[in-house]
Amino acid sequence: MHDDTYYFNIIRHNIKRIRKTKNITKEELAQRIGVTTKYIEILENEDMPSDFTVAIVGKIADALQVDISELFKEPEKK
């Protein structure tokens, strides 16, 4: 069984990867979901905010225009 940090790290990795692939800045993503740029920086730098919820994950998926399941995919092992 995995802990919260394990799942958060998968989501965090995918948010950053997809955001960069789509050339969306941290500022743009923050504006799209109604949070601060600092919040996005915290998400992408391994600090799980205390108010991180599935609703935030859904908003991020919508803002990145991907199915929410994309944010839960484990990174390919090299």
What's the structural blueprint in terms of helices and strands?
Elements lengths: L3 H18 L4 H8 L3 H8 L9 H11 L14
Helix pairs in contact: 1-4, 2-3
Gyration radius, rounded: 12 Å
Order of helices and strands: HHHH
What portion of residues belong to β-strands?
under 5%
Class by SSE composition: mainly alpha
Helix segment tally:
4
In round numbers, the mean pLDDT is: 92
Describe the structure.
With 78 residues, this protein is mostly helical. The chain has four helices and no strands. Helix 2 packs across helix 3 (37-44). The longest helix is centred in the N-terminal third of the chain and has 18 residues, at 4-21. The chain is globular, with a radius of gyration of 12 Å. The relative contact order is 0.21. The model has no long low-confidence stretch (mean pLDDT 92).
Which key features would you list for this structure?
78 residues; mainly alpha; 4 helices; 58% helix
Provide a quick synopsis of the model.
The protein has 4 helices and no strands.
